């Protein structure tokens, strides 16, 4: 984004202090000493610094518009999150504008570069799966715009985040398979490097370790989130010399893809091969056999993330970032119900 005016980065460089310190000094927060504030304000005046975002408007919430950046709007999980966001936003007099990345980091960056932040009081963000850097979000926070992450979060950025308990949900899912007699359990994971991909993988590994089951690296497959990826991953597993007898999928769409692949190979889901997902998508009750899963609190995640954002907007000097982790719930259906062997 071409900028032809002084930024807080310029002020920070001249004064040899951090960008975040400059941002807080300009917003007159309590955690910056008076001497530093005076230096920042004096230099800002000297350089004719004009903020990219009207901090006074921010404090008053004067635009009453919130931006929501998310990977998809067509799947059940994100549409439910949006419903939760809308409820809180509208009840507090805010409108929302959706920006959809289609899970593309390039599109995410383009949206941020073209975002008219002066028309927004704050942003709710779920990052795209291949985002290598979240500097574009840090820059907008440093300019004084509140940002709250939900579901897919940027771990390196210090702001509020709302997530489901990926680790314990995965652990419970895999332990459920073990207690139902499956001992060779694979994991069709999400993309490498994403925080919730890694958390669910760790839950999978720790459940196997607790029950003294071998961890086979060939049975861990990383790919995208779609049903098609679930099919492809499962065909890959079924071509191995040592085949699993169950799998835990990173989400329900991949689990449903796995079930389709198993059916195409004449393998009975549940009876011969256990499958469990993560989300509780409505499709999990329609497919036959019905899919066991970990239900995510999508609506609550939307509500809480929006509530936190409004606190950041209305109380910028007094409200600190929070990290909220909500538990999931095991829902047992036919796809994982082979009786334990004795």
TrEMBL record:
Signal peptide: none annotated. Coiled coil: none annotated. GO terms for molecular function: DNA-binding transcription factor activity; transcription cis-regulatory region binding. Keywords: DNA-binding, Transcription, Transcription regulation. SUPFAM superfamilies: lambda repressor-like DNA-binding domains, Periplasmic binding protein-like I. The keyword Isomerase does not apply. Residues 6-60 form the HTH lacI-type domain. Gene3D superfamilies: 3.40.50.2300, lambda repressor-like DNA-binding domains. It holds the Pfam family Peripla_BP_3. PANTHER family: HTH-TYPE TRANSCRIPTIONAL REGULATOR GALS, LACI-RELATED TRANSCRIPTIONAL REPRESSOR. This is Periplasmic binding protein/LacI transcriptional regulator.
